[in-house]
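Narrative summary of target 7.
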Amino acid sequence: MDAKTLSAHRRAIRHAQLDWRADDSDLDTPFSTDYDDVYFSRQDGRDESRFVFIDNNDLPQRFADWHHQRPFTIGETGFGTGLNMLCAWACFEEHAAAEARLHLVSTEKHPLTREALERAWRSWPQLSRQAAELIAQWPPAVAGVHRLQLDARVTLDLHFGDAADGLSGLDGQVDAWFLDGFAPSKNPDMWRPELFTAMAIASRPEATFATFTCAGFVRRGLAAAGFRWRKVPGFGRKREMLRGERDEIPQPYPRAATPWFQPPAIGAAGHVAVIGGGIAGTSVAAALARRGSQVTLIDRTDVAGGASGNPQAALYVKLAIESNLQSRFYLAALLYTQRWLARLDPERRWWSDCGLLQLAGDARDVERQSRFLQNYDLPPAVVSPSDPARATALAGIDITQSALHYDQGGWVDPVALCRHLAVTPGVETRLAELDSLRQTEAGWQLQLGRETLSVDQVVFATGHASRDWLDGLPLQSVRGQISTLSLSRRLPLQQVLCAEGYVMPARDGKLTFGATFSPNDDDIGLRQPDHQRNLDELGRTAPALAELFSGLSADDCSGRASVRAASPDKTPYAGPLPDVARWRRDYAALSKDAKRAIACPGHHHPGLWVSTAHGSRGMASAPLCAELIASRIHDEPMPLERELVDHLHPGRRIIADLIRGR
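Modeled conformation, tokenized:
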């Protein structure tokens, strides 16, 4: 990662600074004190938005004519209150066919707070349903991409940060642009050549744009980037505005320096087989089915029969002290999964965002946590420091260490979650073992015992068992055993506690804690010494809780052992399956010169995908990896920045090993 990118992701996202001004109807209108400009017309902002962006991109007719498998994609510079995007959503509902889908991508450098957003939307009761969904999922002010599933057919990706930086990292293509933002004279930093270049690179050949401004340097910047523009009548008192389309000028390719990560060609996705019924497989199956694929979910035992079969799983991640690609992914994954769960189960029947405390074990941990907070500068809604007194109040038991408090962390019942996902409309579950796989002209043929199944594409999500099918990608088996104790009374623990081990608030009369960590061990038999290790670790993690169980031994514990999969760099594999032999041959020159320019794109096994190596953080990582795979298969913008998509690519280890001469 270059210094500029790293700096951008260390920099805190600052909320918009607002003044509120009543219009002629005594409704509040937000006014930016940073840019000395309004967010929308005080006369009729909704009509202006429809005129400038909806009508001048011909969206009513284009929506009515849209019959593609992929969604229609709109890109926007400057989300603001979301007025333009919600108007587009309303227009889509009015004109598009029932099977059509809409994908919205918008950048915002200074997002409104949730409270300010609620106040702004009181002015637009006509869009109250759409606004309520937006507000319910509004993310914290964290740099990067935030995916919101607004309804079954409409997705919104919010890119928090500089518009040009966000669009430069966009992995996807746009059909229509809303070139918005504060007036160029008020906000020149946004309306710069890098923005127009990023738009051009992310545009489909037929992409259109519309913007309220006619400023000369905007016209010149658009033309230089490859857009044709023309002046047309403006809205209200504004005499003119611009509209246009992308010209057929070849654009620079963003993966020119890393051709191995070039995505494979998009194939048919009418029928997809997903191998593996754990959280990785069921989340992929549900994501694909939501997009219209027929999905056959295959597991040799049962849904959640493997590593996803524990009664409770902690919902948290452990981030590096210094921001890096891995930590940026895990933070995005945690925030996404929290929104995803809230939408799946708003009643919290099988999950809880009760909060989580990551305890500092010693003085070195205290110092690490302090450096972590300084380096990331995250909002308190994500993570905040807790001294022992605050930690005690939050946990409900005596805590003697300082801690990091993840306010929306908690626990999940993975069995209930996987079963819920497995009955998503469009998903059929089969209990069978995959014996063989054969490529055909139409896709792939799977042999399931005596049954033959033909599908367009296949996703492997079988944890450590995936190594049997993944063409030599390195995977490590890691055995973990949890312990449970039956309770005769209510325990006071209110939050998940994590240190070297973890313990979760009791559920259904049982306390769950653990877990052991045994690399290169795939035995799932229970071991009494491992129960004792978990009891000993419980004593170190939560001595006030362990005192309540003094006198108990490993013989009093029940539990469960399972095997997880880990990659050498502890980041999941999520993406297309590379042809390892071809990669080693095509990129062999990297072993002598790591900066060697190689034009050959990476060869992949067509229609084969993988989501595995989630380790002990799969409850946080698997849902976002599922979105990534489903988005690629259905030709949508990615839910992460391009460099994070590439960081998850299953072929990354091949390139790393070549460069290191392995």
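The longest strand covers residues 476-486.
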